[in-house]
Amino acid sequence: MYQKIIHKDLSYKINGLCFKIHKKLGRFCREKQYSDNLEALLIEDGIKYVREFEISNLTDSPKGNKADFIIENKIIIDVKAKKFITKEDYYQILRYLSGAKLELGLIVNFRDRHLKPKRVLNSELQDSKENNSGR
After folding, report:
1. In 3D, which of 83, 78, 122, 117 has the Cα closest to residue 99?
2. Matching InterPro entries, A to Z (predicted)?
């Protein structure tokens, strides 16, 4: 069965920008510094984005669910600067993907010695696409 890579070119470009930032800043900065640098590179490359996008339809509370970046209304980026990525970090980006109805999220933890962006897929959308294509 053929499995396509979701938003292959755009996610590859974003990963490249993140590696560039990691090489420039190292691994001991704050999330805001990494986010500011990512924003500058997105602008420089002409990539459309929204920063700190409020995803309001997740809970009754209108506050507190902000995606760090939504890139070209296709990919959510969650910028981290912590020792370990936890299950809660995965659950958080899954909530964001579900609320925004997007297919792909990237968790980028700049604290790692070797940057390893994590791709997270919205399985709800994948399942509904498969069900609709089988009809």
Report:
1. 122
2. GxxExxY
pLDDT per position as a tens digit, 65-95: 899 999 999 999 999 999 999 999 999 999 9
Architecture of 8-133 per CATH? 3-Layer(aba) Sandwich (3.40)
* Six-digit token string for 93: 């980006």
Stated as kind and residue range, the H or E segment containing 77 is: strand 75-80
Q: What residues does each domain of the chain span?
A: 8-133
Query: Residue 124 has which token pair?
Result: 């709800």
The Cα–Cα gap between 7 and 45 comes to: 17
pTM of the full structure? 0.89
Could you tell me if 52 and 76 are in contact, meaning their C-beta atoms sit under 8 angstroms apart? no
**Which string of DSSP letters, residue by residue, matches 39-60?**
HHHHHHTT--EEEEEE-TTSSS
Q: Euclidean distance between the first and final Cα of the chain, in Å?
A: 18
